[in-house]
Amino acid sequence: MIKEVKTQVNVGVEVDVLWKAFGKDLKDIVPKMMPNLVKDADMLEGDGGLNTVYIFNFGPDIKTMTYQKERVTEFDEFVHRIGLEVIEGGHLNHGFSHYKTTFQFTSTGEQETLIDVTISYESQVEVDTMPSTLVFIKHMENYLMNGAT
């Protein structure tokens, strides 16, 4: 049975900058903002939009996984919504049969965005997957706020 966890996070980054970072620039930004967690990333298929497939090769601080492939299963530029589903490696090698993270970005001010995060997963064991997603968002916010794009 697929389960869902949801949360909201406010970040001090303009919605258009955040949208670009999570879309077209994701493969370039993630290794720069978290080099010990993700040593490199590549776009295997697509252009950053719907059905794009990314591979993230993990760095030295992740001891239990070597890589993870993710497919963009939702991509709506009008409402700034992107969904990334793990299709190989990573979480699927650690007890999950389904793992998808959806981000919805809503402008709440000139330099502020509300991020609605939904993680849907199927696993034989109960785990709290939200903390690692929140760390990822904070790394992204810090990276973008320091002028890197």
Overview of this protein structure:
There is one protein chain. The radius of gyration is 15 Å and the shape is globular. β6 and β7 form a beta hairpin. Strands 1-7-6-5-4-3-2 form a 7-stranded antiparallel β-sheet. The chain has 149 residues and is α+β, with helices and mostly antiparallel strands. α2 crosses α3. 21% of the residues lie in helices and 46% in strands.
Brief descriptors of the model:
single chain, 149 residues, alpha+beta, 7-stranded antiparallel beta sheet, 21% helix
Order of helices and strands: EHHEEEEEEH
Overall residue-averaged pLDDT value:
91
Cα-atom Rg, whole angstroms?
Answer: 15 Å
Structural class, by secondary structure, is alpha+beta
Short account of what is shown:
This protein is an alpha+beta fold and 149 residues long.
Topology:
Elements: E1 3-11, H1 15-22, H2 26-33, E2 38-45, E3 53-58, E4 67-76, E5 81-89, E6 96-109, E7 112-123, H3 130-145
Antiparallel strand pairs: 1-7, 2-3, 3-4, 4-5, 5-6, 6-7
Helix pairs in contact: 2-3
